[in-house]
């Protein structure tokens, strides 16, 4: 038998279907990697039909590459192929699912790109922009039809392969089991190999699992808050390297790093929807307070104001100040800091000084509210 003898049914969906899903599978080996997509349709009576829609393969590079990297390349290939299939079908798709038998690749997708090395980070960013992480699921290798692409199969056997033409058996069930794989791969050498050494940003490592809002509430000044976070990081670094402890005064880079961590933490709480939209290159919702500010994420994942000031000769901090929500304690600390530092200036002067570094939402009314509580200004304010 040769390829010309293989018959392929053109009809892939049930006309009376109430549910239409696309399931994509990807896999890789040292020789090749590929992806296959299946349409799963279900009628009101519960009849299920699964058919192969499209597949694509690539020959692995001559240069020796690890299997997890090739698996990641197959995930990128699947993402691109799924986009083409959805645009070509021109029909209402109920749900889209992506399947991989690589727990390492799925774990990479759950990480921030800044924590990964360049090769992996670039591909993870593409996948995160085009798909949702909750659309990715683990499938055992023996049930992965894309495994046939990566390892090859002769025409006689592929004609008789139900796995290839109709996908894994669990797609035929009335309800697809999406139970996630529980294997812990974080200690895997291949997984760890692609992670950056983040010692250059110790603040983020310290704070990523800590809610700093209670710390903010307990501080009376912005400078004190910065120094507390910086000293916490210093303590952690000294405990990690007891033979190379640092006892000098806090350095400017340490204070700057603590500032970025504070802002990033607050932004992740109050601007989470906007940050997700920007990461996926989507339009902000019309109700967003940031819609007219052209916000963007810098290399430190700090949300900043965009706009035409980027063409000016101002310093970078002034052209693109960091965005601060107006309904949180750190905002009040920042306003009080600038108000006192510049000798109790008025509303306009305080706001102008703040905007050299920060952009507070509804800044003028917020500054007015905070300054109105300043006791020294109340004592010296003339009676009206």
UniProtKB/TrEMBL annotation:
Pfam families: Integrase_H2C2, Peptidase_A17. It comes from the Eukaryota. Residues 332-380 form the Integrase zinc-binding domain. This is Integrase zinc-binding domain-containing protein. The lineage of its organism: Eukaryota, Metazoa, Ecdysozoa, Arthropoda, Chelicerata.
């Amino acid at each position: 038998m040769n390829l010309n003898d293989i018959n392929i049914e053109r009809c892939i969906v049930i006309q009376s279907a109430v549910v239409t899903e696309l399931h994509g599978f990807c896999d890789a080996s040292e020789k090749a990697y590929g992806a296959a997509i299946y349409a799963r349709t279900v009628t009101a009576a519960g009849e299920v039909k699964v058919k192969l829609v499209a597949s694509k393969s690539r020959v692995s590079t001559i240069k020796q590459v690890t299997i997890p990297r090739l698996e990641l390349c197959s995930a990128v290939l699947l993402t691109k192929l799924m986009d083409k299939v959805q645009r070509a079908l021109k029909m209402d798709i109920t749900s889209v699912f992506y399947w991989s038998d690589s727990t390492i690749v799925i774990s990479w997708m759950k990480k921030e790109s800044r924590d990964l090395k360049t090769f992996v980070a670039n591909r993870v960013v593409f996948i995160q922009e085009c798909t949702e992480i909750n659309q990715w699921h683990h499938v055992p290798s023996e049930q992965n039809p894309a495994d046939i692409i990566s390892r090859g199969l002769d025409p006689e056997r592929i004609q008789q392969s139900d796995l290839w033409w109709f996908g894994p058996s669990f797609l035929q069930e009335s309800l697809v089991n999406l139970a996630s794989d529980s294997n812990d791969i974080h200690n895997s050498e291949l997984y760890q190999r692609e992670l950056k050494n983040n010692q250059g940003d110790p603040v983020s490592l310290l704070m990523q699992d800590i809610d700093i809002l209670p710390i903010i509430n307990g501080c009376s000044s912005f400078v004190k808050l910065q120094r507390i976070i910086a000293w916490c990081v210093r303590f952690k670094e000294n405990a990690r390297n007891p033979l190379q402890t640092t006892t000098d005064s806090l350095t400017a880079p340490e204070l700057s790093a603590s500032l970025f961590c504070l802002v990033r933490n607050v932004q992740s709480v109050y601007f989470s929807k906007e940050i997700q939209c920007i990461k996926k290159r989507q339009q902000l919702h019309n109700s967003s307070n940031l819609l007219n500010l052209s916000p963007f994420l810098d290399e430190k994942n700090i949300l900043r104001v965009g706009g035409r000031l980027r063409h000016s000769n101002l310093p970078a901090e002034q052209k693109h100040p960091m965005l601060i929500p107006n309904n949180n304690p750190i905002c009040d600390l920042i306003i009080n800091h600038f108000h006192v530092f510049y000798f109790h200036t008025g509303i306009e002067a305080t706001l102008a000084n703040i905007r050299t570094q920060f952009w507070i939402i509804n800044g003028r009314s917020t500054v007015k509210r905070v300054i109105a509580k300043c006791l020294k200004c109340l004592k010296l304010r003339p009676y009206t």
